[in-house]
Design brief:
Strand 8 and strand 9 form a beta hairpin. Helix 1 runs parallel beside helix 8 and helix 4 runs antiparallel to helix 5. It contains 14 helices and twelve strands. The strands form three sheets. Strands 2-4-1-5-6-7 form a six-stranded mixed β-sheet, with helices on both faces. The protein has a three-stranded mixed β-sheet with strand order 3-9-8, with helices on both faces. A three-stranded antiparallel β-sheet has the order 11-10-12. With 366 residues, it is α/β, with parallel strands linked by helices.
Length: 366
């Protein structure tokens, strides 16, 4: 499994340019006018992970298969989207389908690129997006509450629990706070997730800066970083134009040289992915053999059977055990057989919590 991130923001902040760079395609037309992206563009991108290359080299693997992430470029939002302004209804429907939200905010000044609000202010832009999402959530919850409250009065315990949860969530939203700030108990967690609220999704702010500021950001991106920290969120500084240029280079050496000339150690893609992994609490485990070395993504805290299920549901259903080697041991001892000889291959059962970087071979019986 990977994760599905929706790239959102006001028109002309660099969403589609970022999408093109992330997916190394030109499928999202980048143009200097609102609503250039109408249908959401979807792209899958391999996650760069130097560990996978090292594992493949030691294992003599013919093929390397990275884990995949999915990015969705969603139409630009404008003030009033929750009431159907612009492409509001379509925007909100598309964003409900993603696991996390990447909020792209414009942190560059360029008189040649128009701004729908007629001035550059990333804090205001971020607040416009959040406000529209909260208004949409409030409308959705108010519609659900009336029939639930009526049912609860008949003594239906489940309806009462759901109505209470919705009332508490509405109170948070009416106080100007997103739904993700609500303190949800373990008993209510599943019901809360089923509400599919836009403001319950984790967020990552991506500050699109001019090329000269791609390494350290600027005053505008600093303000966004402060706002994100206050919200318990993260922010990443990138230059979408630089990322787009890098995506046109096929040779890795050329990419590295290009980055070095700009004083950058890694691409914005790598930073966005790492922040995304942290955002959704994801980790990677590996499988390796002569045919292929492959990376797999699961949630932190997942147990061995769930990891097996990421490969195939039959593996999880018939799980017996997992033969497991820590990444550091595999690299240090130079392969599986040496790890076996040194007693570094462990037999793990159903309660084993997978660690990031584990190399795993699953035994199952269906």
């Amino acid at each position: 499994m990977g994760f599905k991130c929706g790239i959102v923001g006001l028109p002309n902040v660099g969403k589609s340019t970022l999408f093109n760079a992330l997916t190394a395609t030109q499928s999202a037309e980048a143009a200097n006018f609102p609503f250039c992206t109408i249908e959401p563009n979807v792209g899958r991108v391999g996650v760069p992970d130097a560990r996978l290359d090292k594992i493949a080299a030691i294992g003599g693997s013919q093929k390397i298969v990275p884990t995949q992430l999915e990015f969705v470029d969603i139409a630009g939002l404008v003030r009033g989207a929750s009431k159907g302004e612009g492409l509001g209804n379509q925007f909100l429907a598309n964003i409900r389908e993603v696991d996390a939200i990447i909020k792209v905010v414009r942190c560059f000044i360029d008189d040649n690129v128009t701004h729908v609000e007629e001035s550059v202010d990333p804090i205001r832009d971020a607040e416009i997006i959040e406000t529209e999402l909260m208004l949409s959530d409030m409308e959705s919850l108010e519609k659900r509450l009336k029939p639930l409250a009526k049912k609860a009065r008949t003594g239906d315990k489940e309806a009462k629990q759901q109505a209470d949860l919705i009332e508490r969530t509405l109170a948070v939203l009416e106080d100007g706070k997103p739904a993700r700030t609500l303190d949800v108990s373990e008993d209510d967690y599943k019901a809360f997730q089923m509400l599919q609220l836009l403001t319950s999704k984790p967020i990552l702010f991506v500050c699109n800066v001019e090329e000269d500021c791609a390494d350290k950001g600027n005053e505008l991106s600093d303000k966004v970083a402060k706002m994100a920290a206050e919200q318990g969120a993260s922010s990443v500084v990138i230059s979408a134009k630089i990322e787009e240029e890098i995506s046109t280079l096929d040779d890795e050496a050329d990419k590295k040289e290009f980055l070095e000339t700009l004083g950058l150690e890694e691409t914005g893609l790598a930073r966005v992915i790492r922040a995304g992994y942290d955002l959704l609490k994801l980790i990677t485990f590996f499988t390796v053999g002569p045919k292929e070395a492959r990376a797999w993504t699961i949630h932190s805290g997942d147990k061995a059977p769930q990891a097996a299920g990421a490969i195939h549901t039959d593996f999880e259903r018939g799980f017996i055990k997992a033969e497991t080697i820590a990444y550091d041991d595999f690299i240090e001892l130079n392969g599986e057989q040496a790890c076996k000889d040194a007693g570094k291959m462990r037999q793990e059962g159903k309660e084993y919590i997978v660690a990031d970087g584990d190399l795993m071979l699953f035994r199952f019986n269906v």
